[in-house]
């Protein structure tokens, strides 16, 4: 058998004619292409952005993977990712800005805080999943707003100006959509797509990806898992959560200092 010849060049590398045709067919149905910026960084959590990438790609959007530089970063873990757009290249008219879990070092990085404080206020919709809600908070985007995250982060949200909301539902406050981890990225993205393009398209995309979670063990929240298992999980992540809490408070102080200095 002869080796397959991948002959379609894109701005990011080789792909196949079948995928190009699929993308073109989806985009032909849209009045205008949505511009979706997905934040990536060293140590980002892929599962927290995969839902957004899946939902908005199926909807025919242009996807930008945004970081300071166009240099290979490693998602957590063994997930090499090449950003496609720098902070300076990011347009002011994003339809959606997405952030999932990123490390504490990134949450308190002044350059990252400035980026979110600027582009987050200009984007039509903003999605924060899991620890990504803390990133929105350190950039002042959650001040006076209701927000959620994973169960470990919810108690931290008041320290970045937010009103915390527990539970697993997507919390919508204005144009800010926050959610818990993993499937929360799909849930929030489908809701934002509904707001941008209507329920019919959002429902069709949900069907196209056959999004119908069936967790095998029924332990996906502290309430479902029970006190003993939750205690074990929380003890495992306690040192990391302390780092996150301290970084979020320092980052929020950086944002406040930037506002005072204007």
From TrEMBL:
InterPro entries: Class_I_gatase-like (IPR029062), DJ-1/PfpI (IPR002818), INH-QAR (IPR052158)
Organism superkingdom: Bacteria
Location of the DJ-1/PfpI domain: 35-193
GO biological process, one term: regulation of DNA-templated transcription
PANTHER family attached to this UniProt entry: ARAC-FAMILY TRANSCRIPTIONAL REGULATOR (PTHR43130), DJ-1_PFPI DOMAIN-CONTAINING PROTEIN (PTHR43130:SF2)
UniProt-recorded name of the protein: Dihydroxy-acid dehydratase
């Amino acid at each position: 058998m002869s080796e397959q010849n991948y002959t379609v060049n894109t701005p990011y590398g080789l792909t196949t004619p079948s995928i190009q045709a699929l993308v073109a067919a989806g985009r032909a149905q849209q009045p205008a292409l949505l511009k979706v910026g997905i934040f990536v960084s060293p140590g980002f959590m892929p599962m927290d952005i995969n839902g957004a990438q899946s939902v908005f790609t199926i909807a025919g959007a242009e996807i930008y993977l945004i970081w300071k530089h166009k240099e290979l970063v490693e998602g957590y873990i063994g997930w090499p990712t090449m950003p496609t757009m720098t902070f300076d290249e990011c347009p002011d008219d994003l339809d959606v800005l997405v952030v999932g879990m990123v490390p504490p070092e990134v949450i308190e990085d002044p350059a990252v805080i400035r980026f979110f404080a600027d582009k987050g206020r200009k984007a039509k919709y903003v999605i924060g999943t899991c620890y990504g809600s803390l990133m929105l908070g350190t950039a002042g985007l959650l001040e006076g707003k209701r927000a959620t995250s994973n169960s470990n982060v919810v108690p931290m949200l008041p320290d970045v100006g937010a009103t915390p909301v527990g539970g697993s539902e997507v919390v919508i406050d204005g144009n800010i959509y926050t959610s818990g981890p993993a499937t929360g990225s799909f849930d929030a993205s489908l809701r934002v797509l509904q707001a941008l393009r209507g329920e019919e398209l959002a429902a069709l995309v949900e069907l196209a990806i056959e999004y119908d979670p069936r967790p095998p063990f029924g332990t996906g929240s502290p309430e479902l898992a029970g006190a003993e298992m939750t205690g074990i999980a929380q003890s495992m992540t306690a040192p990391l959560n302390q780092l996150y809490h301290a970084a979020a408070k320092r980052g929020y102080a950086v944002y406040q200092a930037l506002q005072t200095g204007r």
